[in-house]
UniProtKB/TrEMBL annotation:
Family per record: Belongs to the transketolase family.
Presence of the UniProt keyword Transferase in the record: yes
Function: Catalyzes the transfer of a two-carbon ketol group from a ketose donor to an aldose acceptor, via a covalent intermediate with the cofactor thiamine pyrophosphate.
Catalytic activity annotation: D-sedoheptulose 7-phosphate + D-glyceraldehyde 3-phosphate = aldehydo-D-ribose 5-phosphate + D-xylulose 5-phosphate
Enzyme class: transferase
Name by which UniProt lists this protein: Transketolase
Named cofactor requirement(s): Mg(2+); Ca(2+); Mn(2+); Co(2+)
SUPFAM superfamilies for this protein: Thiamin diphosphate-binding fold (THDP-binding), TK C-terminal domain-like
Domain of life: Bacteria
Cofactor, how bound (note): Binds 1 Mg(2+) ion per subunit. Can also utilize other divalent metal cations, such as Ca(2+), Mn(2+) and Co(2+). Binds 1 thiamine pyrophosphate per subunit.
Keyword Transferase part of the UniProt annotation: yes
Amino acid sequence: MTTDNFALRTQCANAIRALAMDAVQAANSGHPGMPMGMADIAEALWRHRLRHDPADPRWMNRDRFVVSNGHGSMLLYALLHLSGYALPMEELRRFRQLHSRTPGHPEVGVTPGVETTTGPLGQGISNAVGMALAEKLLAEEFNRPGHEVIDHRTYVFLGDGCLMEGISHEACSLAGTWRLRKLVAFYDDNGISIDGEVGGWFGDDTPGRFEAYGWTVLRDVDGHDAAALDAAIESATAADRPVLVCCKTRIGQGSPNRAGTAKAHGEALGEAEIALTRQALGWSAAPFEVPADIAEAWSARESGAALHKAWQERFAAYAQEHPALARELLRRHRTDAPLTAKAEAALASAASGAELRKASVATRKASQQVLDEVGPAMPELIGGSADLTGSNLTDWKGHRELKGTGTGNHVHYGVREFGMAAIMNGLALHGGFRPFGGTFLTFSDYARNGVRMSALMKLPVIYVFTHDSIGLGEDGPTHQPVEHASSLRLIPDVDVWRPADATETAVAWRQALRRVDGPSCLLLTRQALPHAGDGGERIESIARGAYVLRRPEAECVALLASGSEVGVALAAAALLAQDGIEARVVSVPCMDVFERQDAEWRHAVIPRYLPRVAVEAGSTGLWWKFVGEYGDVVGLDRFGESAPAGELFRLFGLTAEVVAERARHLLANAALASLKEAA
């Protein structure tokens, strides 16, 4: 490396440092230490190795870059601005301000070039595992001899915090097992977190840990030495397994008084320290200014356009030789692509098939029956389970198991619920796949933050949560979800479906697969449920989230229920009818979808003039908005017990007799309630 080249590379890295400390200072909020400490690594990767096109952040064959330690977002924003993305300097000046394109942590869909929303530590590296898996599977499926149209890498920056979070153990273990050789992670080993030097609470042998996972580990790389970084990146891209590059760095590098201290982590440096840092770095440009020669050295517009054009020419040759494959690959790359006619036909068959009207069936089994139809019709479908395939029933006829270093469309995630959720998010972010994964509903607690990130990023990931109530029976309260359905319903933009029979299950699957702007959760029973009703019009009514299942002429009370308790409500209505009391029965398979319907539909399904009783084998809190102040809710606001399911439903009053009695009691007070509501 010549002296001139060394000086240029140093100043290119210093441009990141200057922009980071200026933006954090202007906002008086943020984390300058990581961008300043990893600036040299970023320069080595982005200016000399990363394949991307600033003019097209969605280019299919671009390298993916993930900042897992997302608090260092100014590093990413500086890189995007400097290399030529549509992120003008004005947006860097507005760092962390309302409606800026530079939020406090990177957000996909807000800032061009951001691949995933990071902030909750450990999830970025786990998303990256999903991205690398997607690249591997797509390359296996679509590449042909002489036509490697899918051939890109996933690079990750991560820190001590990501490695302390348990999710990184889950996902990185799988990455090693799957031998994801195009995944390269750079570990910012600076020994500092918010609370200070990490030695007192983070004594892991990190290189040894990753070697045990089956990764290639490059130890003790000087994170401020351009030549050492170049050599490390060269070695990493030649490896035959995922790579962890352990980079020794100083947090806040360049700051005379803050470098190497916790003060550099999450505080603005202050005007005086910034002046000293500029002097130490030899950076004379004013705040938010980049010298012309440095800006020119950073721009990737021309090189990115050339890389993209060369790939387009390769793809054109591929399309000429393999037109059907090319069309399919382009279709699957579209994140908003509608379901194919073949998939829609399979779903229609599943929803209306005679198989669903047979004897009682558990909705988890009905779900598998849907997959048996739609799986072969949707090559983009990739499913899996957190070590519960035989219980969640997430496999289907003709599926191909992904085990070890092979390929397939059914993933065994092992006992890793959180890792599964984040990897599915990565698969969805990459494009080319529609992921779903299963576990018991009670273990949604382990996956919950991953579900939340699916919603925040508007990813069409599907979560199959089986064993949805005390119907689990003998396994006892540790495995019996009580608050979990309500907990998931509280997450914005998540559609939580709790179907009452096989037909509702099929419609739930159809709506979840049609959805392209957010995740869906399917809450399914272990126990068999009877068929609740027929009619083609019922299918479209189910799709609206709630509908009238029983509508007598002289109705005087409404019974609302979801899932297994719809059968309880229907039985209660039959008991009430024996006393001359006619009850409407409303099935509510998805509160979230129902609440998005127009007022006319909502009021027609759940009329305000009828006294209302709701029943669900779980927390009662969210049902009150449907039954009103003078309604009633039969539910479960305590933990379960270990016993056969039938005994538990009787113990907790989740029976037709109890619901009918509560309805009679409500009607006895209906006149008073009506007067109060009118007042």
